[in-house]
């Protein structure tokens, strides 16, 4: 079985995304971009799995379709209605919560209690199925109001960095498949559609070196850099 994981991602994440593929017989009117939307995979994934050199496909051709990410929220829709200050954001930073439980509201209360006047230090929280849905993306007030984060020590990165927190302690457990799918989709959307690829991807420990293990040893840092640079 060959699929997206084997093509794009190193072994660690491949296990997380047990991959498979299916076959699509090309019909009249099919295009690679249409199939990409239909199956939730990118045009380049379809092309590389099938060894296509161009975007030309012909009726009756059998195309292997890589297994897409598991179904998840429609990010574009979820974030629509929020006016993004595009000039501001130049980093996207991944975190874990370092706790087993939690959701945006619970962390918001904690952060307020710790004296952060804007509450929830992250812009987004991705649930693990305990206090919010598995892979559910919660939008924090700082994203809605386009306020700086409070998720790292480095001031410049707080000012310009979008903070995304996955619920869980990934020193001990692994992020769920749905959490990683939502994270990937969210960074794809923010970094691609919103920031037009003009940003730097990092995880917390790469920003605040020697101060944190966040997002934990089981977070697939290398695979995410393969994807996001
Ligand atoms: Zn962190």
List keywords for this structure.
single chain, 229 residues, alpha/beta, Membrane-bound Lytic Murein Transglycosylase D, Chain A, Lysozyme-like, 2 domains, five-stranded mixed sheet, two-stranded antiparallel sheet, 36% helix, 16% strand, disordered N terminus, binds zinc ion
Structure description:
It is a single chain. This protein has 229 residues and is an alpha/beta fold. It has two domains: 63 residues, LysM domain (Membrane-bound Lytic Murein Transglycosylase D, Chain A, Roll); 154 residues, Lysozyme-like (3-Layer(aba) Sandwich). It is built from eleven helices and seven strands. The strands form two sheets. A five-stranded mixed β-sheet has the order 5-4-6-3-7. Strands 1-2 form a two-stranded antiparallel ribbon. The longest helix has 18 residues. It starts with a helix and ends with a helix. Zinc ion binds next to loops.
Set out the fold topology.
Blueprint: H1 4-8, H2 11-16, E1 21-25, H3 32-39, H4 43-50, E2 62-66, H5 75-79, E3 91-96, H6 104-113, E4 124-128, E5 134-139, H7 141-144, H8 155-160, E6 161-166, H9 177-194, E7 200-203, H10 204-207, H11 221-228
Parallel strand pairs: 3-6, 3-7, 4-6
Antiparallel strand pairs: 1-2, 4-5
Bound molecules: zinc ion.
Question: What is the gist of this entry?
Answer:
The protein is an alpha/beta fold. It is built from 11 helices and 7 strands.
């Amino acid at each position: 079985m060959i699929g997206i994981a084997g093509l794009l991602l190193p072994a660690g994440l491949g296990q997380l995304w047990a991959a498979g593929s299916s076959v699509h017989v090309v019909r009249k009117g099919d295009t690679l971009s249409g199939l990409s939307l239909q199956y939730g995979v990118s045009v380049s994934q379809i092309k590389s799995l099938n060894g296509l050199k161009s975007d030309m496909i012909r009726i009756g051709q059998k195309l292997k379709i890589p297994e897409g990410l598991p179904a998840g929220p429609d990010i574009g829709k979820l974030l629509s209605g929020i006016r993004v200050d595009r000039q501001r954001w130049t980093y996207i930073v991944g975190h874990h919560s370092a706790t087993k439980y939690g959701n945006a509201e619970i962390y918001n209360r904690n952060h307020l209690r710790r004296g952060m006047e804007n509450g929830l230090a992250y812009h987004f929280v991705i649930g693990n199925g305990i206090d919010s849905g598995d892979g559910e993306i919660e939008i924090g007030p700082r994203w809605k109001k386009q306020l700086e984060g409070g998720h790292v020590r480095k001031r410049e990165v707080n000012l310009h960095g979008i903070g995304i927190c996955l619920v869980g302690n990934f020193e001990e457990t692994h992020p769920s498949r749905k959490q990683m799918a939502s994270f990937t989709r969210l960074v794809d959307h923010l970094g691609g559609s919103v920031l037009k690829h003009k940003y730097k991807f990092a995880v917390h420990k790469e920003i605040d070196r020697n101060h944190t293990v966040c997002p934990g040893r089981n977070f697939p840092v290398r695979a995410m850099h393969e994807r996001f640079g």
